[in-house]
Amino acid sequence: MNSLDKRTLRNYALALVGCVVVVVAAQLLFKTADPVEEYLQKTPDKQEVLGLFQSKAQLATTEVTLRRMGIYDSETRLATINPANWRLGRRACIMPVDMTIKYGVDMRKLTAADIVIDTSNVVRIHLPEPEVIDYHVEMRTDRREVVTMSGWLRDEVGEQTMQTIKNKVVDEVMADSTLFNSLRTEIQGNTRAIFRSMLQQMGLKPVFTN
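Below the sequence we write its predicted structure tokens.
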């Protein structure tokens, strides 16, 4: 290979290296950011966090199934002075009432004022108070579990009376603050655990305040 060929080959090699350098420099200088990557790296704002919580609406996080015994007892009485309406004898009924109660937090009550995000991606959240989200009463009752007694000239305890017993038990259970208070810490803990995981995936450090 003569000197001319060597010089030509060297020039080609230099030109090729120069092209590579130019392409790499252009990519570094004019690189277009990936919009998906930018979104993932972007710190969520207060409205995004608020929307996440409110999208869950009435969030049930704790479920309790319980059984209470309903008792009905009717002493002997004369209803009116009309003998046709006299109710002689005693009626009594003891029956189980099965209930399922769902507790949680109504996220629709959360406002922007309950959320604070600082520069270090720490989000402080004041959650609404726990409450009953829903409850269900088992409508069917196994007659083998019901104890009834009907005195002289009294009808047997029927479905209407049994429904009255159920309604009374439900009212008592729902008004029992002792049951609710015993579950308050668990309800709050379950709710926080759900949102802690979601917020961490958004790149935030959640802190829940009372």
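The longest strand covers residues 58-74.
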